[in-house]
Specification:
Elements lengths: L7 E7 L10 E4 L6 H13 L10 H10 L13 H10 L2 E10 L4 E8 L5 E9 L4 H16 L10 H15 L3 H8 L11 H11 L6 H10 L3 H10 L5 H13 L3 H9 L7 H13 L3 H12 L6 H8 L12
Parallel strand pairs: 2-3
Antiparallel strand pairs: 1-5, 3-4, 4-5
Length: 326
């Protein structure tokens, strides 16, 4: 872990602005285009979610950028200083946080808070020799928070577990909702409960009614909305095996083994990796390690194994499978 001694403040420029007469909101633009920057952005938005100036949710940003043509950047929710004031007015915000992440082994994060009229309210740069994005985000948020009137709540998450959400956010910004949903198929289901901005991304995706049902279910599960995922499956009465496999996964997420068995029984003679993944999850929940291994082994022999399979394996606790298979 990176302690406070690992984070060196490079420079702080602070200018105090007038406080608003009533509660406003804060726009947090994308910090950069790579996955580390994407993860850091999600953490920062989550840290600034509370207080009198809560961070704007991703769906509101998407709609706002659709209205404000000058602020639109294909494939990004980034906000340039030149567009900040126009977007701020559209979204009813009085703070816009823009920033940049530089470096690789030794990363530096620069944040600037822009107020009404384009005035700089606060600015800071922090660095970390170990590249811990959560610690960098916390150090930077604390540095600008008091002066800019932003409440900071610590959030702990790694780049790896935020990667599917960062990819989904980038796809969503580019108008590729299907791509966003596919990215969320690889998400761990405990992340959304710890990182509000990650949940915002998944929520924005599963609520798109034009998406295929199986992708909506996967996004709802990534958002931690298990009940909604089950409802989506029940509402789609087609015989599509991908839908039924996703429905079984949703039922297993709710630990409804009886319903999952019934759903998967209809897929007994169907060759589908999605159905196989649901069968593996069912076998694990019913402590049938040998049966899980029997389904898993052929899937692992594919070159390469699928990303959803590897994501499922990554979420298995130690001892979930028999010793030989593990």
């Amino acid at each position: 872990d990176v302690g406070s001694s690992d984070l060196a403040m490079l420079g702080v420029l602070v200018m105090v602005g007038a406080a608003p007469a009533h509660a406003q909101r804060t726009i947090v633009g994308d910090i950069g285009g790579n996955e580390q920057a994407g993860a850091l952005t999600l953490i920062l938005r989550s840290m600034l979610r509370g207080g009198a100036r809560p961070a704007v949710r991703i769906e509101d940003m998407r709609l706002g950028m659709g209205r404000v043509t000058a602020a639109r950047q294909i494939g990004s929710f980034g906000v340039g200083p030149q567009q900040a004031d126009t977007l701020r007015k559209d979204l009813g915000a009085d703070r816009v946080v823009v920033g940049e992440l530089t470096g690789s082994d030794k990363m530096a994060l620069t944040l600037r808070v822009i107020g009404p009229g384009g005035a700089t309210v606060a600015k800071t740069t922090v660095e970390s020799p170990h590249g811990d994005v959560a610690q960098m985000a916390l150090a930077a948020a604390n540095a600008i928070g008091k002066t800019a009137g932003l409440e900071v709540t610590p959030v702990d998450a790694s780049v790896g577990e935020l990667r599917p959400f960062a990819r989904a956010s980038k796809a969503l910004a580019g108008g590729n909702v299907n791509g966003a949903a596919e990215a969320l198929r690889l998400a761990s289901r405990d992340v959304a409960g710890r990182v509000p901005a990650a949940k915002d991304v998944a929520d924005a995706v599963w609520r798109v009614t034009e998406l295929p049902t199986e992708l909506r279910i996967a996004a709802a599960l990534a958002a931690g909305e298990g009940d909604e995922a089950v409802k989506l499956g029940k509402a789609d009465t087609t015989a599509n095996p991908e839908v039924r496999a996703a429905e079984a996964m949703a039922e297993l997420d709710a630990h409804d083994v009886k319903s999952a068995k019934k759903t998967l029984a209809a897929l007994k003679n169907v060759k589908s990796e999605s159905a196989d993944l649901a069968r593996i999850e069912l076998d694990l929940q019913t402590n049938k390690k040998a049966d899980a291994a029997k389904v898993l082994t052929p899937l692992l022999k594919k070159d390469p194994p699928s990303s959803p399979l590897l994501a499922l394996i990554a979420q298995m606790p130690p001892g979930a499978l028999d010793g030989k298979t593990e």
